[in-house]
Amino acid sequence: MEGRRVRSFSEYDPAVTAVYFAAVMGLAMFSNSPAITLLSLCGALLYFFSLNGTSGGRFHLFAFLLFIILAAVNPLVSHNGTTVLLVVNDRPITLEALIYGLCSSVLITGTLYWLRCFTQIMTTDKLLRVTGFLSPKLSLVLSMAVRFVPLFGRQWQKINNAQRAMGLYREDNAIDGARGSLRVFSVLVTWALENGITTADSMEARGCGVSRRTSFHKFRLRHGDYILLAAELILFAGAASAAAAGAFDFSCYPSVTMAERDWRTYTGAAAYGLLVLLPVIIDMEARIRWSLLKPTGLALSIPERKNMP
Amino acid sequence: MIVIKSRAARGFIRLAIPFAVIPALAVLGTLVFDKQKHLIVSMAAAAFALLLFVTGFEKKSTGTRRLVIVSVMTALCFAGRFIPILKPVSALAILTGLYLGGEAGFLTGAMTAVLSNFYFGQGPWTVFQILAWGIIGLGAGILSEPLKKSRISLIIYGIVSGVAYSFIMDIWTVLWYNQSFSWRLYRLALISAIPYTTSYVVSNVVFLWLLAKPVGEKLERLHKKYGI
Description:
The structure holds 2 protein chains of 2 kinds.
Chain A: H1 14-31, H2 34-52, H3 57-77, E1 84-88, E2 91-94, H4 95-121, H5 124-134, H6 136-165, H7 174-205, H8 223-244, E3 250-251, E4 257-258, H9 263-293
Antiparallel strand pairs in A: 1-2, 3-4
Chain B: H1 7-32, H2 38-59, H3 64-80, H4 89-100, H5 102-120, H6 125-142, H7 144-149, H8 151-178, H9 183-192, H10 194-226
Helix pairs in contact in B: 1-2, 3-4, 3-5, 4-5, 4-6, 4-10, 5-6, 6-8, 8-9, 8-10
């Protein structure tokens, strides 16, 4: 009998992961309430830290600068609002515009962090699995292009070596070097196109396009995937219905107004908060399970997958 | 079951609905809905246009050779996006559209956006990049007759498409930042993007000038030799 698999969030089925990111970011982007966007930013930061630890300092710096710039731009550009803080060049800087700018930059930085995590988790083979649902043909085009890039890189090296051995250009002369690269590129394109035709003919001879394509990875929806998907959808529905009922309504202009807080606001926020924390919770659970499985029970880390052959 | 008999009419409808009718509906929709919904409406329209195109493409029978050549061009574009400052992506998509037809040009541009954003950052803007690069390739295919005749017209198309790319992407910048469209912010975004716009235009001109003849000849030869 198959035991329960210990999986971190990134090891769930790609479709489930894609739905998760769409739900989290979609709700944050379309509700534009500070409560939701702030939760989204916090969740994204937590997950980013749980994926990367303390590395990723340059991205943090970039995000921080972007946050400051975006928050500062709005009050300088938009002069709506009733509460004037100060007047610069006969133009009022208003509290409302400042708050609006802050909200926008919380939303945008939060989304950027989510996307960063998304790009880290969704490797190309997972994307191909997701696009394969949508369009097998385009998925084929994408997967072939992924394969062609290293192939062309190696061929470029070969052509380059051959050209240099024939003494066709020197690399220390910039103009000569550029012309040489252009010639190598031209040769490469010829080779790539002819090679593509050969590949296509060979694929056709083996029955490409006759029946459904199979994939290299055996992705299979397990019980855990269904449970996670259901949890995502329920939490999303809870938060989205609260947002649709107007529990998070928020507008800055002409003056800052918020919807009355009632039970809907709290349950909606709780549902979204839980949704945002799902990956961190799942990873934490996997980590604890691993540590319990280990005979020593001391090491609190998932074995590095990168180092495996 | 095929309702419309003429092949040309079918092709026209397949391209016109996603890229002309839906954007028009989206613009009208933003006038009807309230201002806060611009972002949702425009993203839904972009995604829907792409979905329609994809289903049309999936239904149509396309030879394996054509698919492989499109992925070869996509791989070349993708590798080209790593060149600092000067990017040959648009130029290669234009050349593909010019010699292999608008659909191949669209696919090359669109697939490059999807693929390369795994390295440059995936996001909602991918949808707009797909549309921008795709339409640049598609336009080259539609205008292939006059563009093939003189190199000057090709260069002008390169300049226009470099500027157009910036204009399309800045609509997205404004919508994302502000949720609704504002001319004031759009103007500011366009002004702050001038260095990027210049780099797009310069790289289009340089790469079209350098590659038009060698790559064009090869694609033309492919067309003659294998009937692609």
